[in-house]
Known about the structure:
Elements: H1 3-17, H2 24-34, H3 40-55, H4 57-64, H5 71-79, H6 84-90, H7 93-103, H8 112-116, H9 120-130, H10 134-141, E1 147-151, H11 158-167, E2 172-174, E3 181-184, H12 194-197, E4 201-203, H13 206-215, E5 222-225, H14 232-240, E6 246-251, H15 254-267, E7 272-276, H16 283-286, E8 292-298, H17 313-316, H18 319-337, E9 340-350, H19 359-368, E10 373-376, H20 378-384, E11 394-395, E12 398-401, H21 403-406, E13 411-418
Parallel strand pairs: 5-6, 5-8, 6-7, 8-9
Antiparallel strand pairs: 1-3, 1-4, 2-3, 9-13, 10-13, 11-12, 12-13
Helix pairs in contact: 1-3, 1-5, 1-6, 3-5, 4-5, 13-14
The structure holds S-adenosylmethionine.
Amino acid sequence: MHPNALLELSTDLLHQVLQFQAPADRVVSDFFRTHRELGSRERHTLAETTYGVLRQRLLFQHLAQSGKGEMERRLALLGWQGNDGFLKAAMSEQEQQWLEKVRQVDTAALPERLRHNLPDWLAEPLQAALGEEFWPLVDALNSSAPLDLRVNTFKAKREDVQAALKAGGIESEATPHSPWGLRVQGKPALNKADTFTKGEVEVQDEGSQLLALLTDAKRGEMVVDFCAGAGGKTLALGASMRNTGRLYAFDTSGHRLAALKPRLARSGLSNVYPIQIAHERDDRIKRLAGKIDRVLVDAPCSGLGTLRRNPDMKWRQSPQSVAELQAKQEAILASAARLLKPGGRLVYATCSLLDSENEGIADAFTAAHARDFTPVPAVEALEKAHAGGAGDLVRGPYLRLWPHRHGTDAFFAAVWERR
Length: 419
Ligand SMILES: C[S@@+](CC[C@H](N)C(=O)[O-])C[C@H]1O[C@@H](n2cnc3c(N)ncnc32)[C@H](O)[C@@H]1O
């Protein structure tokens, strides 16, 4: 494809993504579906340029004020993630001069918000909570996430999967905290690897694995994954139950539960019961009240802990959307808690960076349910479940994972036991 034609497509794609009407990954994949002529390297350049612009949107919009023509084209020039010679061939003389000039701007001397590229409502609480660690977090959020796999321990051993991957030219190392995890070098295509088609591995961030580990579902138990979605954690719970007992996978989204089906078939698990519920007070939930050993609430949240993968979330969320999510989180947690039998374990988790969706919800639950639920320190639960370096994974009584400290997405989890 002619360089300028690719740059124009990048401009078009940015124009669509920056309207923030839909998640960026969906807009990008729809765009590729309507542009079948694009090869894999061209798709890679377009996607990475888009993500680069989303990550540094405030800085790039500031720098782009000085140029001429369509704003999105200048943003594409600034965020270009392809070959530099190729980009040069796409630019006019005037654009080349402009880009050279803006590349000389000393960005370290610009105001803070142009350096952290976060909206104020998000930067402020993070700065207050993290102090000096704020900037390492900013850097980590602007880098790409590693590729982690979870070994399906119902079917295979971690070291055998690692050896099989190696034989196929894929290098990996054991994850430091999850006993089920492998961190793969680079981003190899895995869906044709034998070990993947046989259901021995799933792609899953180490942080997500730790949430399932913390739930510690055991053989023969009755377990509920309350917000199962496409079942990333359901599959981990089912394997840790060794395909025995009953594992209910609830979600309000039929579409997400449908995505669980092929993964379930690959996994070899037959103890999972996916159920679409209307809302968190659905009658089917009431019938199970007081009967369940473990409940994982992987609550709908702002997703701000996954900014490495979904940098558009910082522009698509707002204080209002977070406040609405908090109300939902409280309602789901209160309803899910009724399922537990005495001695049962409740786990509340999010992939949010914000205290308001994390400690805020957990502390309020502890205060409101002091008669029925005892908090369990996360470090204790992690140690019992054989997580490596459990003491490094917690803040106070809660699990708190950070990209800059742990190399995972940001996650929070709180654990209680029903009296
Ligand atoms: C963080 S995602 C879950 C991700 C999933 N556990 C995984 O590991 O892939 C939150 C899920 O909550 C679901 N959800 C939203 N409202 C809900 C409700 N009232 N009851 C149950 N699930 C709900 C959403 O459809 C979404 O799939």
